[in-house]
Amino acid sequence: MMSHYSKAVEIARDYYNSPDADHFYATIWGGEDIHIGIYETEVDSIFVASHRTVEKIAALLQVGPGQRVLDIGSGYGGTARYFAKYMGCQVDCLNLSEVQSQRNRQLNEEQGLSQQIQIIEGSFEDIPVAAGEYDVVLSQDAILHSGDRLQVFKEVARVLKPGGEFIFTDPMQSNDCPEGVLAPVLARIHLDSMGSIELYTRNAESVGLEKVQVLEMTEHLITHYARVLEELESQYDKLLQLCHQDYLDRMKVGLQHWIRSGQQGYLAWGILHFRKI
Q1: What is the pTM of this model?
Q2: 71 and 80 Cβ atoms separated by less than 8 Å
Q3: From 193's CA, which of 54, 108, 187, 266 has a CA 20 to 30 Å away?
Q4: What are the pLDDT digits (tens) for 87-128?
Q5: What is d(CA 256, CA 242) in angstroms, rounded to the nearest whole number?
Q6: Which domains does the chain have, with CATH numbers?
Q7: 270 phi and psi, to 5 degrees?
Q8: pLDDT of 4
Q9: Is residue 90 classed as helix, strand or coil in its secondary structure?
């Protein structure tokens, strides 16, 4: 059924549907979010820091009741619930992982938000929605999983209304990253490449999205993965009851690669904000 999606998207879907990944992310992040947090101190909880990223994105937008928002690669739906609860928006969650969407639905129901949030199964490379439907499209740390990132930008531009806004975060390589140095990071997440601020800005401009602002905040990526590693190690025995040991041990090695590459200046992270002309 999913064979028309790129290999990279299929790999991401299978990974996030796996019990190991679901249990790990829900435990370490607290069940609402699965994205990089903004840290005011190095001991901020991952849950609080991740929620702060959502608050920061919301603060950069002028949205309110009656406006429609699409979250592409929506994970457990924490961002959608924030926009529904505090901004009064109607939010559609586009996601391929049935496991994540099941948790999303459950949390929406528990928080009384099912009427404001719709979950759509699909890929952000082929958004199953008519053109010009949304005031805002947002995404957090999901576009890296695409096998055709320019196609994602084309689809976002298509479903946005004129003047609509696209705001997202993504783990990226730095603009001047030497070739080959990210091989251990890319191998861990089964990718051939990563985007960059420069590349994403070109992609946006090529599909009729003008830059509003770019907030480069790579230091939070480094802090975030260090905190995830710290939590993995401190909760290792608990996680062993939920996840296979080889998954946890590979995760530990992978996190060390992310931290080291960030410290060496090879990675980038931040909020990229564009508007449809």
Answers
A1: 0.94
A2: yes
A3: 54
A4: 999 999 999 999 999 999 999 999 999 999 999 999 999 999
A5: 22
A6: 7-276 (3.40.50.150)
A7: 175, -175
A8: 61
A9: strand
